[in-house]
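A protein record pairs a chain with a discrete description of its three-dimensional fold. The following entry can be read in just this way.
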Amino acid sequence: MRISLFFTILLFSISCQESNDSQSHPRVTSLFNEGWLFYRGDALSAAEVSFEDQDWRELSLPHDWSIEDLPGTSSPLDSSAIGGVSTGFFVGGTSWYRKHFSLTKRQKEQRLYIQFDGIYMNADVWLNGKHLGNHPYGYTSFGYDITDLVIQDDENVIAVEVKNEGKNSRWYTGSGIYRHVWLIATEKVYIPTWGVSITSPQVSQDSAGIQAKIELNNDSENAQKIMIHSSIFNVDGVLRSQTKNIISLETASSTEITQEFEIERPKLWSTENPNLYNMVTQLLIDDKIVDEVQNTFGIRSLEFSIDKGFLLNGKPTLLKGGCMHHGNGPLGSAAYDRAEERRVELMKASGFNAIRCAHNPPSTAFLDACDRLGVMVIDEAFDMWQKQKNPEDYHLYFDDWWQKDIASMVLRDRNHPSIIMWSTGNEIPERGQAEGVATSEMLTNFIKSIDTTRPVTSAVNGLNPDKDPYFATLDISGYNYAAGGDHLKKSIYHEDHVRVPDRIMYGAESYPLEAYGAWMDVIDNPFVIGDFVWTGFDYLGEASIGWLGYMQKKEFYPWSHAFCGDIDICGWKRPQSYYRDVLWEVGDQPHLFVVPPKPTFEMNPDKMSWSKWEWHDLVDSWNWEGNEGKELEVIVYNRSETVELLLNDKSQGKKHTNRDNEWIAKWKIPYEPGILTAVNYHGEEVISSDELCTSGSPKSIKMTADRPTIKADGYDLCYIDIELVDKNGVRNPTVEQMVEFEIMGPGKIIAVASSNPMTTESYQKPYRKTYQGRCLVIVKSEKTIGEIKIKAKSESLPEAAISIETM
């Protein structure tokens, strides 16, 4: 089998800026995030306009109530939480949101549409006491035309009931209106939401032929003669192509038109050069603009084949992937644009060029960041279909809602250049049964009725020949945990390639412990196009699978992190990420770690043998007081041919690193304080080095902001790393000490955190205990330009401060 897909993708992005009410800007897309009232708990009659809500808490979206402290406590965790270890002992329930708003003079004459980017979960929405609808799935976008329901000359009230009840997930989901809400005002002749699709059957370095399909609606009282004028600009604002059509459209009707473009010498989108363009589409009646939509897009080609593997713009490309849930660690599931962007930045910096969205569609902000930064995406729909994994999960709604939710995913996301595959699901319980095969074929066909430009895949575990009929319904086969554990063991890929030689495969999930075997399968076999580790970024819920493993128990409280990510919930690299740097040849530095004399955490004697999401117990520390003279094992990950270990400038010997030892060198040396150094060589030439220093007692607090300036828009974030360092500025990784924070200026502390996977501490209070000598504070801007100053103090240490500017 060979699948060749060449096309251009347009990123459909609605402007996030509020426009003025002039006739030159007929479409106004406004963030509808501010001024919401919130009540944690059920509230009888809260959908009614007359309901008394003056005592409710006012807040801005996005919002996740499950990350907040439980009422009357200083912790969000509850050892008796319904979700238990699966959801990290965080608490869901039922809660309400209400918002009072009035229309502008212009809005009274326009069509109005309210769009929710994501509510977890089972949301009911009312406007002025009238039920707009119910949306069960917590991960897809949805909305309502409210033109005929708004009150023109008085206050309107929108009410949202959110029901995150029962056991409905296998990981932390968060609760509430956790993504953006938009109010979209258009004229009566307009392009509907997600009404633009761009593809290209021909892409080369010399030219790209682009085809745009544009939906048009006429809700006015008369037939209209409409000009559709579209222009494509490069990032510098230079016009590259344009075209126009004129059509007649009857009243109360819709149609779709096709426009053709050619761009000479296009700058192609790739992971190294994520070039983007902008397309402006205008609708004109009698030379007057009645609608305008701007879209960012990228031009690139995809090809999948057995003999060549995966080619991006004709270039063989291996998918260096990580699976990622939708959460933002200390922020819960709240999808702030900067939080979404930062996760993608950190993944890209750690060598990842691909992300599998597990196991649901992500936010638009996340995909926008992947487009800008050059990271490929597998966009996934579901974690279950008709058969449950938990009693109250999506299986209750699948039959009635699958088509609407897949349409939401594909229509919303089809124009992102970062997306290279659609996934229909993950480890579906009925995958090996006839009913599962039929459902898979149904989902695949439906996706292709909307978008034929990408292959359809699914992530499958239990990899036996009984899954062959299921795989036959897919274009590309996602294998969970197929890799060989070492360089001697053959993987399931090889067995299946012999049996089904035309099957294109990739590792949809792999164990960190099998990173070497998983990646060797990719580089050795063109029919295995990539590998996605579980997981790229750590997350809340599935608590402790990266240490205590399965089977999970209530007794695992207070573990709340999965503790299996290459990058932890604060955004700091863990040891397995440095090993992946070596496998993927990210830089040329060796990476030095030590096996602690006793386990970092208590082990689980009942851990199942197949539960292998942990990494080796390693720390980047040379502080081992009380172990002087005792042998410690030192591990160095190294890609060059030779590495030497030195302790206080005394050589402990050289070792070769290569494929035979999986690029890992090991020593056992007696501990003495000082400086431990790993130096790598090519021949006799020193390439680079890494070192661990014995640090003294903390003498100061070091504060490092990820950015010196943030936007004064009320949403932008600054992440500040806090480290307790000795007199030489070296972090002491043994210190767990409380740090208190104070903020002044136009900003607010919205979260604090550490990487401690088993603490009941608050994410909301302005203080946090360090773990391994550090913690994190997250600051959100307000809508005022100025200086934000954050102070940090801790017992026996001088106060520290850092300033960031808002602009």
